[in-house]
Design goal:
This is Aldo/keto reductase. The chain is of the alpha/beta class. It has a single domain, classed as TIM Barrel (Alpha-Beta Barrel). 41% of the residues lie in helices and 15% in strands. The protein contains 12 helices and 12 strands.
Length: 307
């Protein structure tokens, strides 16, 4: 990797924030068994690569991940001004940390959205979220009531921008008609092509909104050395490995470059506590595939040639 290279930042919506194209995903932070000081060092290493955006959620790590990040930020307060903070709410997870929840369910009521955002700020020991996402579409979501919550959080200075996660184009358009949304965080990988073809990324392009991508490496299934019975993985891995060898890149960087190349300008979330994995993700930002290379991967993933 070019030692002078850092991950680029882009404005993710016409009136939205500027985020790094690689986002530090902390879903598994509680599983990494890092000391508070080790977390500080990990954040500093990410920052040195140009990864300035952190993705969290209230439920991550059984409601622990945000607090673990907060402990690190309390040790290194200057980092608060160097990162952009994203968190999510709207899922009530059955947990010892939330004993009052009788059943796992969605809650996008005004009261819950506001309380969740405030809890996230306290846990992470920060004063403002750069972006608050609704984690999943709620069948009972009231777009007008949600807009009231967003307006209150924005007016109070607790949340700068609002977006959603895992919303269909129709669900996105409904909520966006009440309050301006700046992103849709969705699953996309060589093992999950749906957003390319169901209108999700088309809508992002139409609105000039950059999507945020989770599980960009198929939950790690793309990179495992073990044999797989999944025919899609069996098709994709050889093509991915051949391209990686030709380009002299890690297979992970090729898979992420494939996503980053989409004209909706996606941001890609990482999910690893290894700095080497962050370097490989950053490396993906330096390389553009040819159309032939891009479509060789798409054809393998789709299991067909283009018509």
């Amino acid at each position: 990797m070019n030692q002078s290279f850092t991950v680029p930042r882009i404005k993710i919506a016409p009136e939205g924030p500027e985020f790094s194209r690689i986002v530090l995903g902390l879903w598994r932070l509680a599983d990494w068994n890092m000391t508070p000081q080790s977390r500080v060092e990990f954040l500093e290493q990410a920052l040195a690569l140009g990864i300035t955006t952190i993705d969290q959620a209230d439920i991550y790590g059984d409601y622990q991940s945000e607090s673990l990040l907060g402990e690190a930020l309390s040790l290194a307060p200057s980092l608060r001004d160097k990162f952009q903070f994203v968190s999510k709410c709207g899922i009530k997870l059955v947990s010892k940390a939330r004993p009052a929840y009788g059943i796992q369910h969605y809650d996008t009521s005004r009261a819950h959205i506001i309380a969740s955002a405030e809890n996230s700020l306290r846990a992470m020991q920060i004063e403002q979220l750069d972006l608050l996402l609704i984690h999943r579409p709620d069948p009972l979501m009231d777009a007008d009531e949600m807009a009231e919550a967003f307006q209150q959080l924005q007016a109070s200075g607790k949340v700068k921008h609002v977006g959603v996660s895992n919303f269909t184009p129709a669900q996105f358009e409904l909520l966006n008609s009440r309050f301006p949304l700046v992103t849709n965080q969705v699953e996309l990988s060589l093992l999950h092509l749906q957003p390319l073809h169901d209108g999700t990324l088309d809508l992002c392009q139409k609105l000039r909104i950059a999507p945020m991508i989770w599980s960009a490496l198929g939950g790690g299934d793309l990179l495992r050395d073990t044999p797989s019975s999944n025919p899609q993985i069996q098709r994709v891995r050889p093509v991915l490995n051949t391209l990686a060898s030709e380009l002299k890149l890690p297979a992970s960087a090729v898979a992420l470059a494939w996503i980053l190349q989409h004209p909706s300008h996606p941001l890609v979330l990482t999910g690893s506590g290894r700095i080497a994995a962050l370097r490989e993700a950053a490396l993906a930002c330096q390389h553009t595939l040819t159309r032939e290379q891009w479509f060789s991967l798409w054809c393998a993933a789709a299991g067909k040639n283009v018509d």
